[in-house]
């Protein structure tokens, strides 16, 4: 027996006692290793029991309804229509294809919503540091309003109040000189197909060339102390050429109303547009906070040093503060983008056929809840992992390069 | 470098700017700032004019007063409404006491800001389109908050130990409130299907926070644990729930909980949504608490172990009290998030604030009054969330004692 208070006895089961002293092993409940193993076994038993009960109940309940757990139903004909699809789909296709169409619709939404939300957020975030009082307060107002209102309400406001409010019944309304709107959708200006493809490639090539030229200019300005004038003229020329191509070469078609029809422009559905705007407006406010926090994390000395070197406000932001704040911003952006991915499932509420909406219809028709949950979870995990993967690569680019 | 003037520590003299100087500095400092100011002013003024014009001419506000009871408490029986008033009174009294206790070291409880805020709330209360007795009760409650705050401050100043009992009072009152809501034990039972509107929104948010807390604590500790099996289970559960949208979980819970549970447990739709919300909230709260746990230096738990405390005691007496205290502001943030997330149950067809407004809007009498209704409930959400975020900022300041 170890006496109470004997320091050699407790918690040190590995210690050998010197020979001759009266020793015994400490009781098992004083042994740390025992508790470690015990708790893990306990955890396995609890989780196992819960799972076993749930699965037994599931099997019994499914058997009562005459169903089994299998994915065979995916090859059955779906029989429902999907409101909008960019790939061919008809009600004779099977559930698996309907599900795929839903995934494509989700990705179509997310791919546009993420850049849009980022633009909103970065603009609002930078505006909160503006020397213009009005702009600063307006950015604060936007963030405080959006952060304290549920996104579903934002979505309803865009869909029912803005878009349906502006459309006058079945007629097409010209909102401004380049936007047309009806209950069927919104028409926005769009390049005509013929020459647009080639000119877009030229534009991209110009942009890449301009990027490298401006980097080269900064480099020789810093290393050789030259003025960089010729390169500046080159950049200006490229910019002018780009603008001319953008406005004249792409062949923009402005939507024109002809009776009850609209010609020209690109038609997007009200559901898609409302969801896009809600996601962008809501996530934009959160991104604005992320950007604001990132900019605040750059020490004041950096601002003052840059100003002391004669950089203008915008240059200070672009060349000194933003590159440093990106290290803080990018990881938080990742979680905002993942939230956006998940919020895209709210489109169900207004009937945009993204993956969850299609699954919901499938669930109503087939009652295959377990299978559909598994498929949905996998889809969202892949979407989120994909986003994280890209953001982590970007994060590698912006982190400090240390020797 | 000789300097006869020692650096003074006094701040630079504050120069009072004239309004013209202020305008010049904040709105018209450069040519582009002037352009921004002019454009923004034009935008703000035109938006304001059209909004005011809409609010006083086009908008038909009778949809709000006609359904005020539905927005607030849903289908709660008229005869039993006194129970809601009692509940509200309890919340006001306890909030006042807590406020007084937290602010016991502040020099002046009723600062000009507080008095101004109280006056604004009183004015707002008088304007609520509800019968006069109700407005008087609400005014009385407001006075009660101020009075209990004063009493709470007076008591806890003389006797700081009393402050410890306030959390216990909140805990006890939670069960009294449940009893008031659900009835039984001498009160007439009210079905959970009859709760609705703001009552249900707040109820769901409060219940998900309260009941998720123990689950979250276990999850957070498990995730931090050194036992691989326990940690693995916690990480899997947290990442699985966080990776999939709440909408998906709500639907799946609605369909699958009856499948997983034994036949004898019949749970209604609201309870199913609540179970999902509790688990969803738990993983987010767990991550918040984990943040708090990680912020506690290792030395604290090592010191506790060195004093002879075993792991549960060192967690319970040393680490957790500190970690939870740090996490309180973030927990308030989670609560604000939950108030907004509960709006998603509207998609399920439950009558929370948003769901209730959807059902009111489907009433032929009020069809098309989207803007008015969404403006109203948006204001309710905004006021609640904004006030709570202000309170959490104050709480953060007063808790920031260093220990």
Detailed description of the structure:
- The complex is a heterodimer of chains A (403) and B (403).
- Chain A has helices spanning 32-64, 95-127, 133-147, 151-166, 193-224, 229-249, 270-296, 300-308, 313-343, 355-366, 369-398, and strands spanning 173-176, 179-182, 185-188, 190-191, 252-253, 256-258, 261-263, 266-268.
- In chain A, helix 8 runs antiparallel to helix 9 (313-343).
- Residues 1-17 of chain A have low confidence and may be disordered.
- Among the domains of chain A are: 29-64; 95-162 and 268-398, MetI-like (MetI-like fold).
- Chain A is 64% helix and 6% strand.
- By secondary structure, chain A is α+β, with helices and mostly antiparallel strands.
- Chain A is globular and about 80 Å long.
- In chain A, strands 1-2-3-8 form a 4-stranded antiparallel sheet. In chain A, strands 4-5 form a two-stranded antiparallel sheet. In chain A, strands 6-7 form a two-stranded antiparallel sheet.
- Chain B has helices spanning 19-26, 31-58, 63-66, 68-73, 81-102, 112-127, 132-158, 165-182, 197-224, 228-243, 246-260, 269-295, 298-306, 311-341, 345-348, 353-361, 370-399.
- In chain B, 74% of the residues lie in helices and 0% in strands.
- Chain B has 17 helices and no strands.
- The model of chain B has no long low-confidence stretch (mean pLDDT 85).
- Chain B starts with 18 loop residues before the first helix and ends with a helix.
- Chain B folds into 3 domains: 24-51, no CATH class; 76-190, no CATH class; 191-403, MetI-like fold.
- Chain B is globular, with a radius of gyration of 26 Å.
- With 403 residues, chain B is mostly helical.
- The longest helix of chain B is centred in the last third of the chain and has 31 residues, at 311-341.
- In chain B, helix 5 runs parallel beside helix 7 (132-158).
- Chains A and B meet through helix 1, helix 3, helix 4, helix 10 and helix 11 of A and helix 2, helix 10, helix 11, helix 14 and helix 17 of B.
